[in-house]
Amino acid sequence: MNRKVKLHLSYIAVPVILSLIVCGCSTIEEEEAVKNIDNVLISVDFNTLTGNKIKPLHGVNNSPISLTKPIPELRDAGIPFVRLHDTGGAYGRSVFVDVPNIFPDFDADENDPANYHFEFTDAYIKQLIASGSQVFYRLGVTIENNYKFRALNIYPPKDFAKWARICEHIIRHYNEGWANGFKYNIQYWEIWNEPENLPMWLGTKEQFFEFYKVSSRYLKDKFPHLSIGGFGSCGFYDISEPGRGGERFSGFVTYAREFIEFCAKEKLPLDFFSWHRYFADPDHLIPEAKYARELLDKNGFTETESIFDEWNYVDWYSHFQWDDLKSEEGASKCAHLLLRLQQLPVDKAMYYAATPNSGYGGWYYFPSQKLTRTYYAFKAFNALYKLKNEVKTVVSNNKIVAAAAADGDQRALMISNSSKEEFKIKLNKEAFSGKAEVYMISKEHLFDKVDFSDEFIMPGRSVILIELNSAGQKKGKSVDIKGNFAGLDGVDNK
Known about the structure:
Blueprint: H1 14-18, E1 21-22, E2 39-53, E3 59-61, H2 72-76, E4 81-84, H3 99-102, H4 119-130, E5 134-139, H5 160-176, E6 188-191, H6 205-222, E7 227-233, H7 237-240, H8 246-266, E8 272-279, H9 285-298, E9 305-313, H10 328-341, E10 348-351, H11 373-387, E11 389-395, E12 400-407, E13 410-417, E14 423-427, E15 435-441, E16 446-450, E17 455-458, E18 462-469
Parallel strand pairs: 2-14, 3-4, 3-10, 4-5, 5-6, 6-7, 7-8, 8-9, 9-10
Antiparallel strand pairs: 1-11, 2-11, 11-12, 12-13, 13-18, 14-17, 15-16, 15-18
């Protein structure tokens, strides 16, 4: 039986609106007692643009490997970027993406197309492009988690200049047609990944800095129109959780700071700086994203993009199970982060990972490859991304995050409640005139259409997308869909 919510179209008074808290303020921990949390007011002004575009934050790392046909779920969710790192699984399955997979004999002539093995990566990238996504290409190697048995490809290349020339030919293959290649115009080329992480780099910090210096200068000289950057930093955990990860996590911050200072001192190309974070509380990203931006700006890299290109919800410190990534818990945490990132100084983001057979693969049930609630959180965000223009959105409680967008008569609002608590949501009714379609992700709903009013109960661990078409409607007219918000019951479509 559906839980009944009385339709209530009361006017929200101006003094209340003025007291609201704009999305993006500091977080409140889930465990912290909060007063007056029963009602949450969300005010949206679709006629007031913030001046910001909805950013391409719903990118991903990898996807199911498809060599013969496009991947419909990428197109359906409008995934803007697919980052190619750890592609194919352990050791890149020895055939995908990685520099030593494409050019296996480092002593061979790098100018001879016969020494390159592009076939599998060609087939995969072709289907990514056909699926409507852009490629974000990591030049480097797959993580070697079992490197203590035998490390294969994570030592520093024995000739940095030759490694850069090999990468030059990989870029020319995919962008300029070299070696029976393509003209995909792939813009982003990332040098390495997590060199401060032992399963990724068994050289010293100084060796990596020199490696980046040689590679970035060479590639930027050959391709001044492309974005060359790195380095896939392990991130800034110690900024939001000081001391929690000990010297290892504090060392991540030191490594990134010294790398950016080195790039500034040597005047190296750094079109983007990429960094990572696995989180229990998505609001830990608030100080960390600000720190990354401030670090770049302080060193003169004011035009350098801050790209958050590896992330996921992983609560190592609590009850966490891998299945949580696929549930309403993972979906609401990911939606919370996507909406929060819209307010933070991050230019692009890429979830790790959209693969069906990885522990971190929160998009699919394995082996069925049925789509999960988390996938639909990304699809919901794409509804905002398609509309391009962010509009003013004000929320009265930091446990609820929301963002809205508009393009002419097309309008959308996305809301996430990633806490365990239930809230009564009140919308400013005058903004929600026109025909509305409402979708919900929750324990009972897999992106199902539900009934709508401007006042409803939002259960814990849930996501809501409201899409509006206001064409032909008079300003101020209330929504033309009546009924109760069917947010607490339904069929589990898992």
